[in-house]
């Protein structure tokens, strides 16, 4: 069960975002606009969107989760909220879990919108079980949130945080197999791809949605994503003190 302090932190984040109606509206609307533009750009008769959809779902989950969490967490630091929490009896694990769960609610809302809008409105076909696709997406989202919190500790303002997008997200898009198969890249790039979470997110979703595999059958990809999420969470907990004082 989540510690009470973590729930309190998560509740404060939830209330803060909900009260900001413009931010809340953008969180709900932007995923629909992005997926609609992508849908309009693909030829319908070739079924290309059906093939590319798993990679898009994984990529957008990483992108939106990273962006939402990174900038929101940076704002917490700049306003002194994180520093006050670090000076209180709240443990670092409570802080990490609280922020993780607080941001997760809104990142999950975006992911749910993208997933159901893609399947039921854009009529993308898939062969796996929807609930297994959803569970896999949740794990991808947790990785994105943890990555966003961690990377935001190295930024001092929102401009710097935005600059991490081409540094952290774009290389994963080019190297994870979204645009072309990893096997066709050079040996050096294939080795780099092995250390990118988006590589395993794309592979796992493709196997579930295109080949009808189960979560057990994509256990290797799941295991890598779990290890990444846990590892980044632990590293973040150790770097919080430095982050609060920067």
Q: In angstroms, what is the radius of gyration?
A: 18 Å
SSE pattern = HHHHHHHHHH
Q: What is the number of beta strands? A: 0
Helix content: over 70%
Number of domains: 1
Number of helices: 10
Largest sheet: none
- Envelope shape: globular
Instruction: Measure the end-to-end span.
Output: 32 Å
Q: Which band does the percent of strand residues land in?
A: under 5%
Detail the poorly predicted runs: none
- How much is the average pLDDT? 85
Q: What structural class do you assign from the helix and strand content?
A: mainly alpha
Task: Write a concise keyword list for the protein shown above.
single chain; 246 residues; mainly alpha; 10 helices; 79% helix
Describe the structure.
The chain has one domain. The model has no long low-confidence stretch (mean pLDDT 85). Helix content is 79%, strand content 0%. The radius of gyration is 18 Å and the shape is globular. With 246 residues, the chain is mostly helical. The two termini are 32 Å apart.
Question: Could you outline the blueprint of secondary structure elements for this entry?
Answer:
Layout: H1 4-19, H2 21-41, H3 48-78, H4 81-87, H5 92-121, H6 130-152, H7 158-175, H8 187-193, H9 197-211, H10 219-245
Helix pairs in contact: 1-5, 2-5, 3-5, 3-6, 3-7, 3-9, 5-6, 5-10, 6-9, 6-10, 9-10
């Amino acid at each position: 069960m989540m510690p009470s302090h973590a729930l309190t932190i998560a509740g404060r984040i939830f209330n803060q975002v909900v009260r900001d109606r413009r931010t809340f509206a953008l969180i709900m609307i932007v995923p629909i606009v992005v997926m609609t533009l992508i849908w309009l750009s693909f030829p319908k008769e070739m079924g290309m969107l059906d093939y590319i959809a798993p990679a898009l779902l994984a990529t957008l989950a990483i992108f939106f989760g990273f962006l939402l969490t990174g900038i929101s967490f940076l704002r917490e630091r700049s306003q002194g909220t994180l520093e006050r929490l670090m000076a209180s009896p709240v443990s670092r694990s409570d802080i990490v879990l609280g922020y993780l769960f607080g941001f997760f609610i809104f990142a999950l809302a975006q992911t749910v919108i993208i997933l159901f809008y893609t399947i039921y409105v854009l009529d993308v076909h898939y062969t796996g079980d929807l609930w297994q696709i959803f569970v896999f997406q949740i794990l991808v989202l947790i990785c994105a949130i943890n990555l966003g919190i961690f990377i935001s500790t190295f930024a001092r303002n929102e401009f710097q945080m935005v600059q991490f997008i081409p540094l952290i997200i774009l290389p994963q898009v080019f190297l994870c197999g979204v645009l072309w198969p990893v096997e066709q890249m050079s040996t050096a790039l294939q080795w780099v791809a092995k250390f990118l979470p988006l590589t395993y997110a794309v592979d796992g979703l493709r196997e579930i949605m295109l080949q009808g595999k189960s979560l057990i059958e994509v256990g290797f990809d799941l295991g890598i994503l779990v290890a990444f999420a846990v590892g980044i969470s632990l590293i973040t907990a150790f770097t919080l003190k430095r982050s609060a004082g920067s």
